[in-house]
Amino acid sequence: MLTQAPKGTKDVLPTEIYKWQALEKMMRTEAELAGFREVRTPVFEHTELFLRSIGDTTDVVQKEMYTFKDKGDRSITLKPEGTAGAARAFLEGRLVSDALPCKMYYINNPIFRYENPQAGRLREHHQFGIECYGAKDASADADVITVAYRFFKKLGVKNLTVKINSIGCPECRKAYLETLRGFMHEHEGKLCETCHTRLERNPMRILDCKSPICQQEVKDAPAMLDMLCDECKEHFECLKSLLEELEIPYVIDSRIVRGLDYYTRTVFELITQTEKGELTICGGGRYDKLVEELGGPATCAVGFGMGIERVLMLVEQEGIEIPKPRTLDVYVTIQTPEAKLPAFKLCQQLREIGLKADCDHNSRSLKVQFKFADKTGAPITVVIGQDELRNGLVKSRDMVSRDEELFYIGEAAGKIAEQLADIDAEQCGTDY
User: Could you tell me if 84 and 49 are in contact, meaning their C-beta atoms sit under 8 angstroms apart?
Assistant: First the structure.
């Protein structure tokens, strides 16, 4: 029997799913408040989509993609990030012809990367991301940053900072890349093997290398910010002004380039301080050439992605409490075989009026049924026994106060709903 999930994957059990659902609800709310609508894209895409969008010099393409041939001998890849698929859907769905900007979000989006599993980042993990197509002004950059920042503030994350940088447009980047290559050639002998391959094809990726040796070698490298064209410089200054106006704390970090080749101009990360140092909890930026690279018209775009597992890890580290909902509102016990049908029918009536209800399905003793009801956290347990059946009644018990009430079976669902409302009101009153 296979009883172990593949390395780098993790089950989300019924005992913990409520945390995911609470976060997803908050994420949906923040995205939709800003006018974003949900998009869902396939788990796999044609490999060429990622080669053209992410860039074949990136670690993702070179080392981390799950790529295979299907039965039609087509190269298929499990998506390693969310933006390329969303851009493809934007084009294929002809949303480019609709009124722009087009604002979309995805949630609980499965992402696959073959890398060593680490805290908050598994080989299969899930992302929340937003994509805004057709908005060129820096206000769109500030808009997506604000959605992420507001989400984390409402969640209760402390020590939150936004790191921003501009990596320019293709035009002003040409001169910078030549300058950077010249600097890197002077340090070439000390760079890691991977960075040697990046030197000619994409030297900016060396700035993003995680090797401590490479980080030491590039600490004095020229910054793109010093070589921005007037238009890119104006865009970046506008972004800073907007963040200041919104009182969003930011710092400029000229070493942020992000790990994917499609980025242009603004790149950003949301950082929080933990006991182990800085933790990146969200990243994104502008990718004004991506849609064009995929065969569409020139279309500005900006967005972000955040790993849901990493957010959950942060919630635990910071002691943020996510209230656990009760499994059931009402549990209906069965004292005698003749009570099975009316008990089952009462459960359906309770569900129809919006209460979470269940009954015994194993012909267990009343004592065992009450123990099970206790474990579910149901505030009300209903008893249907011989005496109740004879008189057309049900007995409803408040599991905290142990108070009991009798209701005619025909009106029991409505009466139990009223009883539950009273219990909830009392519990709310004691919280304050």
Answer: yes
